[in-house]
Automatic annotation (TrEMBL), chain A:
Keywords linked to the UniProt accession: Sigma factor, Transcription, Transcription regulation
InterPro entries for the chain: RNA_pol_sigma-70-like, RNA_pol_sigma-70_dom, RNA_pol_sigma70_r2, RNA_pol_sigma70_r4_t2, RNA_pol_sigma_r2, RNA_pol_sigma_r3/r4-like, WH-like_DNA-bd_sf
Name of this chain's protein: RNA polymerase, sigma-24 subunit, ECF subfamily
Native organism: Candidatus Falkowbacteria bacterium GW2011_GWE1_38_31
Taxon lineage: Bacteria, Candidatus Falkowiibacteriota
Keyword flag Transcription: yes
From TrEMBL, chain B:
Alphabetic keyword roster: Membrane, Transmembrane, Transmembrane helix
Superkingdom to which the source organism belongs: Bacteria
Name this protein carries in UniProt: Uncharacterized protein
Transmembrane segments: 32-56, 76-98, 110-130
Presence of the UniProt keyword Membrane in the record: yes
């Protein structure tokens, strides 16, 4: 196994090449992505931490088994997120369940980014922002929720989202627009209910 | 600490279960098979398109008034729906295969669909020019039972003597105004050609395929009698009618002898312009 200091300097794509020959190198790939993918699983699925970790283990095994299928024209992170997305969907199918409405782990920067993009910063009290966005996201259709999470919480650009969801960029843009419209509609509906 | 635990746990599962990366050749083979089946579907769809061109080209445009009231309803009646559905199915398969290639998802479905339609039509036109459409239509007409009920329906359309349409092969010249014709059901008819208009490019002699517009008569004969008003050539109807269930080349009697048309017969049925038939 190459020395750790050397390994840490290598790109993800280089590590993939090494991990095919030496499974110990795969540990470094996992360490790089463990936290990110675990958050992503929890955000899109609403699974508990333990359940999300089980899914993550399956994801890592899938990634390892498919290392030879990695397309060097893709970013490794997009490919890893794609496998994670597929595994979460497959997990839903296996347990015949819909995404659960557990709280989504939202950090302040992401929240502010989403609020600014949707032009809703002024409409809601900052202290209620997190709770409100959480509820609205959980009430959105899965396809809208996921695209918003990828854009604002995983901070992926359209090209990366296109590669993760395996949809054309134009479709991702349309999906994003519809997701924002749905989000605003849901927010307006909740506001009108609160006023009454 | 937790971070390291999950990764190490996965690594130990990989070691314990002897999991290894799937060999690259398996992914390459899968991709190759996907492209191969896509290319095959494209060729099959293109072959279907060549049959569509063939059927449309040899549709009865010269006699549509005798089949339907106007050209629009005639076109709707005679469109090769089976082959259009066949083409659509294979375009769908091409789209499906392409979308499942490594980079297929990058393209929008309308673009992929338009591309595969264009390619199918382009190749189909080339196939048609090479005679593929005609060969497929002929072979299926010959070998596939009921093909003429859904594939090429022209023989059915021209097997309605009660509606004034009859087609088949001339089997015998009886007199200067009468000849025998075997239709697609193997039925022999006595055709009376007196005063009939004959398309200029045909000569009526044994083994010649004809479309005849006219009507049933009450005349008595060993065979049913059809009074011809217009006689047109019958090209690309598929295999010739069978006699006693056999192709002429399968029959112990052999194929009808092609006799030169008697001159007197030629004189009796004047050649007229096709315009007069329309």
């Amino acid at each position: 196994m190459p020395e750790n200091s050397n390994i840490e300097e290598k790109s993800d794509e280089e590590l993939v090449g090494l991990a095919i020959k030496d499974q110990a190198v795969f540990l470094h790939i996992m360490n790089r992505y463990q936290a990110k993918l675990l958050y992503y699983i929890k955000r899109i699925s609403g699974l508990s931490n333990d359940e999300a970790e089980d899914v993550l283990q399956d994801v890592f095994i899938k990634i390892y088994q498919n290392l030879n299928d990695f397309d060097i024209d893709l970013k490794f992170s997009s490919w890893a997120y794609r496998i994670t997305h597929n595994q979460v969907i497959s997990n839903f199918r296996k347990i015949q369940a819909r995404p659960q409405n557990a709280g989504i782990d939202l950090n302040d920067d992401s929240l502010r980014g989403l609020a600014a993009d949707l032009d809703i910063e002024g409409k809601i009290d900052n202290s209620l922002l997190r709770e409100k966005i959480n509820k609205i996201l959980n009430n959105l259709e899965y396809k809208y929720k996921e695209v918003l999470i990828l854009k604002f919480f995983e901070e992926k650009d359209y090209k990366e989202i296109s590669d993760i969801l395996k949809k054309p960029m134009g479709t991702v843009a349309s999906l994003m627009n519809r997701a924002k419209i749905k989000f605003r509609e849901e927010m307006d509906r909740r506001d009108s209910l609160e006023i009454k | 600490m937790e971070k390291k635990d999950i990764s190490r746990k996965v690594l130990s599962v990989i070691e314990e279960k002897h999991i290894s990366p799937t060999p690259k050749w398996q992914f390459l083979l899968k991709a190759f098979l996907l492209w191969l089946s896509g290319a095959f579907s494209l060729l099959v769809g293109a072959a279907g398109f060549s049959v569509i061109i063939h059927l449309l080209r040899f549709n009865d445009w010269d006699a549509y008034r005798h089949i339907n009231k106007n050209i629009f309803s005639f076109t709707l009646l005679t469109l090769p729906y089976f082959w259009i559905l066949f083409l659509a199915l294979f375009i769908f398969i091409v789209d499906y295969n392409f979308k499942h290639t490594k980079r297929g998802y990058k393209y929008r479905l309308p673009i992929v669909a338009a591309g595969s339609i264009f390619l199918s039509m382009f190749l189909g036109t080339a196939f048609y020019a090479a005679g593929v459409g005609r060969v497929i239509d002929f072979t299926l007409s010959d070998r596939l039972p009921f093909y003429n009920q859904f594939g090429n329906r022209r023989p059915m359309i021209w097997s309605e003597p009660e509606n004034g349409r009859l087609a088949g092969m001339v089997s015998e010249i009886k007199t200067k105004e009468e000849f025998s014709l075997v239709d697609f059901q193997g039925q022999t008819w006595l055709v009376i050609a007196k005063d009939a208009s004959v398309a200029p490019m045909i000569s009526i002699e044994p083994d010649v395929m004809l479309r005849i517009i006219g009507g049933l008569t009450d005349d008595v004969s060993d065979n049913p009698v059809f009074q011809a008003k217009i006689i047109l050539p019958a090209e690309h109807f598929g295999p010739r009618p069978r006699i006693d269930g056999l192709h002429c080349w399968e029959s112990p009697l052999g194929c009808p002898k092609v006799n030169p048309m008697p001159d007197m017969y030629r004189d009796t049925i004047p050649e007229r312009s096709m315009e007069k038939f329309r």
